[in-house]
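Troubleshooting log. The previous structure file for this entry was overwritten by mistake, so regenerating from the original sequence record. Sequence copied from the archived sheet and checked twice against the printout by T.R.
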Amino acid sequence: MATIKELIPQGLFTEIGEHLLEKSREAETGWPDGAADEDTLTGDFFGYLRMKETEWRSGNDRWKWNSRYEKFSGRGKGAYEKHRGADLIFQIEITDQGNNVAFRKGMLIQAKKGGWSRSSGIRNQAQQMEALGSGGSCIVLYSAAGYKAISSVDFLDNDLVGIRRKETGVGSFFVDRFLECEVGKEGLFVEGGRLNFLAANGVKKQEKITSPFETLTIEINHIL
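Regenerated output below.
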């Protein structure tokens, strides 16, 4: 499967990367104001990363792109976070000059505040996210020392020493791992109250993000 870099002009790829890196750095300045509450930090950070549909041009070449996030319910019996292990999904969509979706991918994210922990709770959340597709999720850590990120795969495969060695600044993670298609999944996105994803066999599925969490299989028939 082709990566974003292989499908879009280099100039557009650079613009998206610069946005993610610059806004991540700006967002980290919000720590003093939101340090008391994890959800406040999450809304502040990913609000910076959000980008309304933006047009990119180079000569006659025209593309549009946007980035957004959707916070999942984390409280109550029917909370989607308890079902899937994620606080939110961050996703990006790129359309070509014919207004066709050229690339759409997302990444499930569990956000934490303070220091790294190997507790059974966070391990279970990482495993729940990865159950949807290996490599499709990460953990973001907010702290006064800076915001860090690590893929769920690296988190599960390492002890605390290894986790600290594998972690990177969150802005670098979004550019070097997410945008470079090392983490996250093409076809993983939320739309109309449903999480869309590709099953291991390549079949498209949808899952409601409100209780009851029904999973639907989307059958596509090619009619000649």
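Residues 219-224 have pLDDT under 50 and may be disordered. Archived copy saved in two places this time.
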